[in-house]
């Protein structure tokens, strides 16, 4: 018999909300690298019980955003260039795959979305608005990820991208980030021409410029 359709239980939705809120707070710097995370304080801030907070911290540990010391304390993971470089390689490969699969599917409205996102990206960098720059960069690459419709790509990127976003905040706050505007234009040009391989190659190169090699 068919499995009955059911509404996800509130507990699941609450757990996801707590996880997403804490992840965002770490990535945007609200919770700073090395900061000690106290369960009671987090519960009070989020207005939830200890269980969803502990579940969220466990997931955040798995993706490298917090460090849990059993019997001692939990802290926001310090910025780790090596970990970011490792995440960068994975992200670059997955965005390359997304571009290769998505370019043949692009329609004019999709290309227009990418162009608009890159214009917004360039404007945000000129205004030194890091949050807006990150959002616009997400919008640009998100068109290709969305169109490729590969659930594994989307799931893995959801895990590795937060590690990169912490480094990206530094890059987009400097003149170095402005090179991405031109790289996006090159990707878009290849996409308009229907050259999936060239667009994929440039997309990979774009992601590999984000974090400097670990010393």
For this entry, give a set of tags.
215 residues, single chain, Arc Repressor Mutant, subunit A, mainly alpha, Four Helix Bundle (Hemerythrin (Met), subunit A), elongated, 9 helices, disordered N terminus, 3-stranded antiparallel sheet
Structural account:
The structure is a single chain. The chain has about 220 residues and is mainly alpha-helical. About 70% of the residues lie in helices and about 5% in strands. The chain is built from 9 helices and 3 strands. It has helices spanning about 10-25, 40-45, 50-60, 80-100, 110-125, 130-150, 150-170, 180-190, 195-210; strands at about 35, 65-70, 75. The chain has a 3-stranded antiparallel sheet with strand order 1-3-2. Helix 4 crosses helix 6 (about 130-150), helix 5 runs antiparallel to helix 8 and helix 6 runs antiparallel to helix 7 (about 150-170). The model is unreliable at about 1-10 (pLDDT under 50).
């Amino acid at each position: 018999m068919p499995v009955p359709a059911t509404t996800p239980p509130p507990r699941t939705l609450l757990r996801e909300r707590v996880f997403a809120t804490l992840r965002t707070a770490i990535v945007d710097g609200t919770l700073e690298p090395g900061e000690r995370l106290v369960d009671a304080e987090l519960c009070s801030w989020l207005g939830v019980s200890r269980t969803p907070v502990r579940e969220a911290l466990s997931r955040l540990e798995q993706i490298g955003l917090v460090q849990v010391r059993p019997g001692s304390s939990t802290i926001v993971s310090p910025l780790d260039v090596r970990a970011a470089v490792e995440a960068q390689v994975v992200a670059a490969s997955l965005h390359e795959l997304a571009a290769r699969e998505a370019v043949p599917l692009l329609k004019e409205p999709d290309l227009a979305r990418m162009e608009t996102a890159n214009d917004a990206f360039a404007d945000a960098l000129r205004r030194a608005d890091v949050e807006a720059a990150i959002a616009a960069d997400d919008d640009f690459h998100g068109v290709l990820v969305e169109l490729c419709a590969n659930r594994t790509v989307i799931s893995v990127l959801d895990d590795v991208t937060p590690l990169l976003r912490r480094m990206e905040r530094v890059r987009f706050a400097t003149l170095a980030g402005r090179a991405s505007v031109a790289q996006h234009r090159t990707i878009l040009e290849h996409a308009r021409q229907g050259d999936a391989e060239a667009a994929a190659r440039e997309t990979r190169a774009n992601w590999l410029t984000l974090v400097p090699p670990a010393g």
